[in-house]
Amino acid sequence: MRHKDIGQHLGKFRVGIAGAGGLGSNCAAVLARAGIGSIVIADFDIVDESNLSRQYYFPEQAGMPKTEAIRDNLLRIRPGLDVITHNVRLDRENSAGIFKECNVIVEALDDSEMKRMFAETIQLLLPETPLILGSGMAGWGGNNRLRSLRIDETLYICGDESSEVSEDRPPLAPRVGIVACMQANMVVELLMNLK
Amino acid sequence: MKIILNNRTEEFDIQSLTVGEMIRMKKYSFRLRIIKINGILIPSEKYETTYINDGDIVQMHYLMSGG
Predict the structure, then answer these.
(1) Could you report the per-residue pLDDT of A137-147, keeping only the tens digit for each?
(2) Which residues 2-31 in chain B show a CB within 8 A of chain A?
(3) Phi and psi (nearest 5°) for A140?
(4) Which residue among A24, A90, B8, B31 has its CA within the 20 to 30 Å range from the CA of A119?
(5) Does B41 contact chain A (CB < 8 Å)?
(6) Which of A176, A174, A177, A132 is nearest to A156 (CA)?
(7) Do A108 and A24 meet the contact criterion of CB atoms below 8 Å apart?
(8) What is the DSSP letter of A78?
């Protein structure tokens, strides 16, 4: 399939991204470039200077809500992209409603309690929608330990499932970026198989 | 009973056990995980009341912080 046809196909779909930090902002940027038609993205945080080490933001955006900053950046990449933002903290009550129109959902939250809440909520309330989790991306190196697992038709996990973020093992741009791109690549794979 | 846990066969000397019992028997210590039995998600608050039976396919994966 040629590039133009792939873009036309991907342009028909909407992808949900929970979180606009290291995973979510980078995943959204490559999906925008690949030609996804519509991106729904939710985050409650503001851009902090410390985020610039790995997240898809620029120094002049410090202090902006991440949802506004990512919208600007995605529209700079592709002015025709449909971007829907929700400046909220995701919870058991609002998550399914925000992402119910999405063909695929990417989990890109940082806190593991939040990850579990979101994974459980989406799998229970939107059981037909494929969900791609990110788990284990802290530190550096270990390219070959990062992998993508298919649990079943609706659940996928990208990462090494072992490296947890801590003071001594912060998330660094290359490893976070790899996992964000693995999630995006999984989105594209799933959507290319849809009519 | 025999179950498939993360694509491997596991044998237990009892007829059935709860998800919580399996976690303790296997000495899984890390707390944040997602569990599916036969493709159905089991929410964490139901680990002590949901039973795993012979032939069940169980998937258990860790959710590490970072994102």
Answers:
(1) 999 999 999 99
(2) none
(3) -145, 170
(4) B8
(5) yes
(6) A132
(7) yes
(8) -
Q: Do A176 and B66 touch (CB under 8 A)?
A: yes
B59 to chain A, any CB pair closer than 8 A? The answer is yes
- Say if residue B29's pLDDT is above 90: no
Q: What is the rounded CA–CA span in Å between residue A10 and residue A74?
A: 16
Q: Across the A/B interface, how many CB contacts are shorter than 8 Å?
A: 86
Q: Between B36, B39, B65, which is nearest A112 by CB?
A: B65
Contact B41 A112 (CB under 8 A): no
Characterize the bridge pairing of strands B33-37 and B57-62: antiparallel
pLDDT for A88-125, tens place per residue? Answer: 999 999 999 999 999 999 999 999 999 999 999 999 99
Rounded distance, CA B21 to CA A1, Å?
Answer: 50
Residue located via tokens 């410390």: A50
